[in-house]
Amino acid sequence: MKIDVENKDDGAILHLEGKIIGDGVAKFKNALEEQIDTGVRWIILDLSDVPLMDSSALGTIIMVFLKLKERKGKLVLLYAQENIINILNITKLNSLFEVYDNMQAALNAVQLKP
Amino acid sequence: MKKKLPKEITLDIPSEFRHIYLLDNVLSYVAKEMRFDEETKEQVNLAVIEAGTNAIKHGNKNDPDKLVHFRFYISDDGLTIYVKDSGNGFDPSSVEDPLSPENVMKPCGRGIFLMKALMDEVEFTMSGNCGTEVKMVKYKTQSRP
User: B65-76: per-residue pLDDT in tens?
Assistant: First the structure.
């Protein structure tokens, strides 16, 4: 899988490409932890090119979501595909994560002006 | 009319997460053979990836010398999959409900739940220190009993 990080003032947008499974989960986790270590307050996960993620990837997102919440920050999901939305619904994580279908709405949600 | 015997496909992978991508490729082939619709294909894909990941991590403890064995039986009625590790076995009933309010924010414990939610049948067989085998079935929509 491929990860492109777009750093902003106090946050980051991660553009992800490919299935987040197998050893891709560790790569995904490292990329998110790097952002946490640099002190970001918010993260937008662009899932437009992610057809599938497993439960370990979901667990990684929960971990980062909670870390950002501790520092009064936020993690939101952008352009999640139908398969991912289904998994969020089945696991009831749809009640935890905000999912947006346009960048501006996601940026507004993390309280950043474009 | 005599029923056709199911077509069998087997795959053995060393217990390293990078090989899950190979499993993913085999699953794409199996789904094509089954003529599953896109939604069913993704359900089966995720359930088997969860089973394989569990076998590598919890069963074989990431030991690359230990193999995870996959058997796929393709038939007109549906797809039956067996995933077997060489670990010490575990009790699937000991896994907590990830939907209960106290667990919903926990980062782990959703793999078996997803397997059960996405497949029509899921059954675990523990054989002491000979490992755990999980059997999963996905019926063709018109064949569901």
Answer: 999 999 999 999
**B102 at interface of A, judged by CB pairs closer than 8 A:** no
Q: Model pTM?
A: 0.93
Q: Point out the residue among B53, B99, B118 whose CB comes nearest to the CB of A92.
A: B99
Domain count, chain B: 1
Show the tokens assigned to B105: 């924010």
> At B47, which amino acid appears?
A
In a domain, B87, yes or no: yes
pLDDT digit string (tens) for A19-48? 999 999 999 999 999 999 999 999 999 999
- ipTM exceeds 0.95: no
Task: Please report whether residue B2 resides in a domain.
Answer: no
How far is the CA of B13 from the CAs of A24, B53, B116, in angstroms? 17, 11, 23
Q: Which fold has domain A2-104?
A: Transcription Regulator spoIIAA (3.30.750)
